[in-house]
């Protein structure tokens, strides 16, 4: 048995004992594919997922470098066999800029393999980030995750008031927060994305499944996200 307590940095938590069972304290562990650490940060999970994604990429590398497979098919291979390995459960993530950068670096490596280099005269060069972004119409992996978070927000908001996922999402801890800039909470992060998209009265819009689906589709390629 192991346990992990989400604590402030530097604080120590002893092993837990419940009856005759002892739960060993660890700094992190993996649960349902997500790495959970003692500080409640997602960065360790993102690193673990990109490493797993690299293994999925290696397993399908022979198809992505094939000259007889169309780019459109290669993109489908990426979106169905590689990206889901990285983004599974990402609806619950609160990303930092560092996390977003790591995810985009991972994806660009694969896109450069799919789209190949560019010839300029007698010289071949790798595609730059702007060229890759245009190739995928701005629908990168970070925007995909943010769109999935918005989709999940609408799904939970349409649940009954007493449903556990909704109670957990809307719940509040009435305790003081540490001095300095507070860490961004999941709801804060998602609502900030909706503000960037200029989505007004979003709570009302979540009640209409079709209208919310359009918001999710917009998020997939929104230039501000």
What does this structure look like?
This protein is mainly alpha-helical and 225 residues long. It is built from ten helices and seven strands. Helix 1 packs parallel to helix 4.
Topology, element by element:
Elements: E1 2-3, E2 16-18, E3 21-25, E4 28-31, E5 34-37, H1 43-59, H2 61-64, H3 71-87, H4 97-115, E6 118-120, E7 123-125, H5 129-135, H6 141-157, H7 164-170, H8 186-196, H9 202-205, H10 209-219
Parallel strand pairs: 1-3
Antiparallel strand pairs: 2-3, 4-5, 6-7
Helix pairs in contact: 1-3, 1-4, 3-4, 6-10
How would you summarize this macromolecular structure in one to three sentences?
By secondary structure, the protein is mostly helical. It has helices at residues 43-59, 61-64, 71-87, 97-115, 129-135, 141-157, 164-170, 186-196, 202-205, 209-219, and strands spanning 2-3, 16-18, 21-25, 28-31, 34-37, 118-120, 123-125. Helix 1 packs antiparallel against helix 3 (71-87) and helix 3 packs antiparallel against helix 4.
Described by strand count, sense and barrel closure, the largest sheet is:
3 strands, mixed
- Report the helical percentage: 40-55%
Low-confidence stretches: 1-5
Number of H/I helices: 10
What string, H for helix and E for strand, traces the elements in order?
Answer: EEEEEHHHHEEHHHHHH
- What is the spatial order of strands in the main beta sheet? 1-3-2
Return the structural class: mainly alpha
Strand content: 5-15%
Mean pLDDT: 89
Instruction: Write down how many β-strands occur, each being a DSSP E stretch of 2 or more residues.
Output: 7
Distance between the termini: 40 Å
Based on CA atoms alone, the radius of gyration comes out at 21 Å
Instruction: Using the alpha-carbon principal axes, give the shape.
Output: globular
């Amino acid at each position: 048995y192991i346990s992990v307590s989400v604590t402030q940095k530097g604080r120590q938590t002893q092993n837990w004992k419940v009856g005759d069972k002892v739960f060993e304290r660890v700094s992190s562990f993996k649960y349902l594919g997500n790495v959970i650490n003692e500080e409640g940060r997602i960065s360790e999970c993102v690193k673990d997922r990109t490493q797993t994604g690299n293994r999925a990429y290696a397993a399908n590398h022979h198809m992505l470098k094939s000259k007889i497979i169309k780019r459109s098919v290669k993109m489908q291979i990426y979106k169905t066999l590689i990206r889901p390995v990285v983004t599974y459960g990402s609806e619950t993530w609160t990303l930092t800029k560092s996390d977003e950068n790591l995810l985009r670096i991972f994806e660009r490596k694969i896109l450069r393999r799919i789209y190949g280099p560019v010839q300029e005269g007698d010289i071949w060069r790798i595609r730059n980030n702007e060229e890759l972004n245009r190739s995928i119409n701005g629908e990168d992996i970070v925007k995909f995750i943010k769109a999935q978070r918005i989709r999940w927000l609408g799904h939970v908001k349409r649940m009954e008031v007493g449903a556990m996922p909704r109670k957990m999402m809307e719940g509040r801890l009435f305790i003081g927060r540490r001095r300095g800039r507070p860490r961004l909470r999941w709801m804060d992060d998602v609502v900030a994305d909706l503000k960037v998209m200029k989505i007004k009265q979003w709570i009302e819009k979540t009640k209409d499944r079709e209208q919310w689906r359009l918001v999710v589709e917009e998020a997939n390629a929104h230039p501000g996200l």
